[in-house]
Amino acid sequence: MSDVLLSFTDVSVSFKARFRFGASEKLVLKDVNFSVERGQSIGVLGGNGAGKSTLLALAAGILGPNTGTVRNHNAEVALLSLNLGFDAILSGRINATMSGLLHGLKKAEVARVLEEIKEYSGLGESFEQPLYTYSAGMRARLGFAISQYVSPDVLLIDEVLGVGDQEFRDKSSRSLRERIRREDQAVILVSHNAITLVDLCNRFLFVNEQTVREVSAEELKALQDLASVRRKEAAEAVQEG
Amino acid sequence: MNRSNYPALLGFRTYTDLVSEASRTYLSFFWWLAEPAFQLAIYYLVFGVLLGIRTENFLAFLLTGIIAWQLFNRLIMNASASITRGVGIYSKVPINKLFFPTVALLSDLIKHLVVLLVLLGFLLITGYSLGVALLALPLVVLTEVVLAAAIGYWAALLVPFVPDLTIVIATILMGLMFASGIFYDVSNLSPEIQSVFYLNPMAVLIREHRSVLLENQFPEWQALGVIALVSAVLIFVAVRFERRFSQHYIRLVVS
């Protein structure tokens, strides 16, 4: 029996500039059809502004489509976010609790893993200090440590592989890799980098010119090469211009 | 967002809101009391001393009015900005947008309860004999909170669509403040004017605060009931509105 968690049917999204009467709608995604099943890890590749983040927002239920439907089959969906609900004036401990609750953890679960979060983040006594005393790296470590304990049915990741200094970067990308390969959930991972996606995922979507289509690993690599050639050309054109 | 998480989230967010706000100033929690005290001093000087408005026990009369008004004013101002401020959260999590004004209401209510306790202490010290009518105070306060929630929810829901409303709301509140009988006794006005005056629910609620606190008289239940009922309907429709447009708010940020 297939275990479908999310299904997109003929989904289109467009945005309109606010309160500019007569402003034209900008189409972002058109007729998107795919579904997400348990055990799948879906890699999404696309250029800047191609609609990758919009796709994640739809999957998370943050954004509704203009036409078509995004159906959630009673799945818990969470978008990994490294500084969700952070307040700079409050301590790492309080922020970790808030972020955990917002990510959908129960209060008792958060209480249980707080010490582990402190441990994993490697913040030591800084865990009790306000966030404004943290460096960017420390904040990222705290955020990542919390996200370790978020385990929904569908995990959405928007390019957060590896954060912090080199040592933490290795540690964090290792744990993320393990999680993506887990069988009891589904993952949608968005990236600019086809190599990473091919390495981590077992299904691939390519987002380009408002359309989303399913591709094979080989196609995905070829598309990345094409995209980087285009970017190079565009950069040269700018320089010459 | 899992529905069962909301109670814990509301409680914790209210707590962190209060701590966060207090941590931003040197005098932190002291401001909860200092702010109404300074307002009292200014109004007393202007209306009591310079303009010579004198009702019986002007200080207690004024203080009760100011404190009752401040709750309403704060609840609505803070609620109206709350969804707009919550963008960092609602752009990452599918959360009920009314979560944000509810947190604002709860944290303002907690501050208000502290101020109310001090007011009661002040009344006792200055020789008021608080009587059985005091038992009705929670209901008077609750009616005010429900009224402010109704208006605050709608303000919060609509401000992201029409940011200009923030200015409109501030202006209306300013007007209402002068029309709620904070500095003067409405019963001194002519009966025709009074009947128009009490169409303003805050004028009614301030009157009821004074009945309960200063005159040891039970409030007019019917007036409170009407305010609570109309507010409840408004809240119900706000909940429906949120459900319908919840996934639309992110569009206001992106575009």
Q: Poorly predicted ranges of chain A (pLDDT <50, ≥5 residues)? A: none
Distance between the termini of chain A: 57 Å
Q: Please report the number of helical segments of chain A.
A: 7
Give the SSE string of chain B.
HHHHHHHHHHH
The CA-CA distance between the termini of chain B, in Å, is 24 Å
The profile of the biggest β sheet of chain A is: 6 strands, mixed
Strand order of the largest sheet of chain A: 5-6-7-3-8-9
**General shape of chain B:** globular
Mean pLDDT of chain B: 91
**Number of strand segments of chain B:** 0
Assembly state: heterodimer
* Portion in helices of chain A: 25-40%
Rough shape of chain A?
Answer: globular
The profile of the biggest β sheet of chain B is: none
**Rg of chain B, please?**
19 Å
Q: Helix content range of the residues of chain B, please?
A: over 70%
Tell me the number of strands of chain A.
9
Notable features of this structure?
heterodimer, A: 241 residues, alpha/beta, six-stranded mixed beta sheet, three-stranded antiparallel beta sheet, 7 helices, 39% helix, globular, B: 255 residues, mainly alpha, 11 helices
